[in-house]
Amino acid sequence: MGGKRRKSESEAMEEYGSDVELDRKEKKKKMEKGKTREILPSMIKNKEKRSAVHAKLKHEKKVEKRKKLKARDAEEKRALELGEEPPPRKIPRTIENTRENDETVCKPDDEELFAGNDADEFSSILKRERTPKILITTSRFNSTRGPAFISELLQVIPNAHYYKRGTYDLKKIVEYAKKQDFTSLIVVHTNRREPDALLIIGLPDGPTAHFKLSRLVLRKDIKNHGNPTSHEPELVLTNFTTRLGHRAGRIIQSLFPQEPNFRGRRVVTFHNQRDYIFFRHHRYIFETKESKQSDSKGKKGKDGKGEKISQQKVIARLQECGPRFTLKLRSLQHGTFDTKGGEYEWVHKPEMDTSRRRFFL
């Protein structure tokens, strides 16, 4: 009995010793993990130490990025010298190129879209059968910046005429514009002494587009601005990809004549990005600059007679004429303006904004 008891006690001591060794090994592993684990700035409570660690990490990332750029440039240069194709550049992930799939995106071989373009309300203007004639008016309660904005719009849009609103109802103004053969009516709405919306009504049969207007900057507030001429401008519409965007683009396109005068060197741009339409008005000029040719070693290139060789480069310079503003489509209505019985093609609602990557234009 005593021998068996001694054996059981010795076995228990051995088991206890093995457990202690396992605990020590686990503690060592934990300590090693703690040492190798990266200390994040958010884990540091001291503000000065936290800011110092954050600055150090930021500098390290910047150095790594520069090294990658230098390595990529060296690979491209080596490939060009050997006559090979350079390695393809990586495309960064943006909200635009990761947008949600939309079935209404226009395709170049869409016959239904081209047939609709030939039969819509703007086909006669865009086929140059009619010249655009625009009537511009205001809301009933005008502001101080409203007239300044309208005077600049009159210089941007050719063949545009301003009429005071007075106390007339908008439906009566639409009827008057139809009789006077106007092709479009623009109403500049103001709120708190600031223009905040544009209503564009196609005549005589519509449609009516309501745009929210924001970030208005007049010509006098633009640094080194230029003064526009009376030449017909060139029109640039970019990134109107869906059916709705195509329709909005044609509404804007119908405001301008389709025969630009290239001697004036004027460009009016409507650039759509994430359903915000950015308006810019520029003048451009082409200039030739002489650039001295240089070798890879940094020595200036010379011909056989020892004279320096110079290359001519053509560069384009831009000067903004103003105004500058941003539009966002709120609704698109069939026919002319009618708040009670009008049918809407599209209306923006807050519940439609389900994702940052969902766009409608």
TrEMBL record:
Gene3D superfamilies xref list? Probable brix-domain ribosomal biogenesis protein
Q: Where is the composition biased (Basic and acidic residues)?
A: 71-81, 289-310
GO MF annotation: an example: rRNA primary transcript binding
Q: According to its UniProt record, what is one Pfam family this protein matches?
A: Brix
Residue ranges, compositional bias (Basic residues): 52-70
The ranges of region (Disordered) come to 1-94, 289-311
Share an example GO biological-process annotation for this protein: maturation of 5.8S rRNA
Spans of biased composition, class Acidic residues? Answer: 11-20
GO cellular component, as recorded: nucleolus; preribosome, large subunit precursor
Question: What residues does the Brix domain cover?
Answer: 132-338
- Name this polypeptide is given: Brix domain-containing protein
